[in-house]
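User: My collaborator sent over this chain with a note saying "see what the structure looks like." That's all I know about it. Can you take a look?
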Amino acid sequence: MYGRAIAAGALGFTLAACNAAPPPPGGPIALCSAQSGLSLRAAKAQAAGAAEPVSATPEEVRQINACLVRAGAGAIEREVTVPVPTPEREGASIFSEGTGYRGSTLVNVTLSPVAADPAPRPAPKPAKGKLPLPTSYPLLPGDAELWATLTREQQERALLFLQDGSTIRASLRTD
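Assistant: Without extra context I'll predict from the sequence alone. Here is the result:
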């Protein structure tokens, strides 16, 4: 009796697994390329008659790599060309009665690894009698150069302003 129940359960599980939706072409790369906007750009290029694979921009590759890492897959380490599905219903409108409808198709995209962003330069050592640049606070462009020109008293006042969420330049204004 238990043997039949186990066999029926195993058969049901097997049939459910067979009826599961197949993974999208390209797997996580397809999903991440859609999120980066590459799939839509590739679909537009394909609609315009492009026959060659569409190359991802460095920014798209950065977004795709970040998405792949979040998904638990590795970042792209070598150039790959993969088919990705284009967005469905591209070109359809409610008033066209479906005449502009084009279903999802596959388009080839080329992804090349992007060089890592250069490491930030360490803050220069402060001059004797001055405070180091407070890099733990958000700074504006040009603040590092401005900081080096301030006196010790001005730096101390600026540090108080930064701790309160203000800026170095605001600390130089006299009221």
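A starting point for your reply to your collaborator: The beta strands are 54-55, 80-85, 106-111.
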